[in-house]
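Predict structure. Chain length: 228.
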Amino acid sequence: MIRNLIRLSIMALLVSCGGDDGPPPAPEGAMLVFPEENSECTTGTDINQTSTQITFRWMASNNTESYTLSVVNLETNVPQNISTTTTSASLTITKGTPFAWSVTSRNSDSDQVASSVTWLFYNAGSQTTYTPFPAQLVKPASGSTVQKDIANEVVLEWSGADVDNDIDSFEVFFSEVNPPSTSVGITNSTTMELPVGVESGTTYYWRVLTTDLEGNTSDSGVFDFKVL
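Prediction complete.
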């Protein structure tokens, strides 16, 4: 009896001293503040005739030690990245150009990271009208494998925006060839999805061309997906 009591006491002591507290809390995604979504950024410091220094700002996120700001030139798809422990960072970017920006939250105690949403904006230039932002392809995700529906179709989904708010149409190009050059439909400014016929075991490529009322166009770039 005494031996059993001693054994139970030792086990209780081990549990109390070596209990598993669980994994460290993962960082949370930051809320973006400036430049605002789908806006024209007119606040910045002129560096030269072609460049402006913009200060990006976001709100602090929980369980976060550092942030990585990523700013992507949507004309060249070239990113600029900068890390900071504060909630702002400045980068020099090209005038009159569309950009996408986001923030990644990190914590050295966790192997997980958290990404903010992505916002688009135009860095102000000399132009008075702006080309639409390139459409952001949403579904199917690039490189994904999807199931066709009972009608042997997959629905393509995207989002579009324009500083001037004058998008006229979206034209969808879809084929088994990269880059896709076959137009499969044109939708109006409020319709951002289109069903397309597919076959199992086939890889497809798609892109969306956005046109505004001034005749300006922008290209989304190409996504691909495979059908089960």
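Summary: The mean pLDDT is 91.
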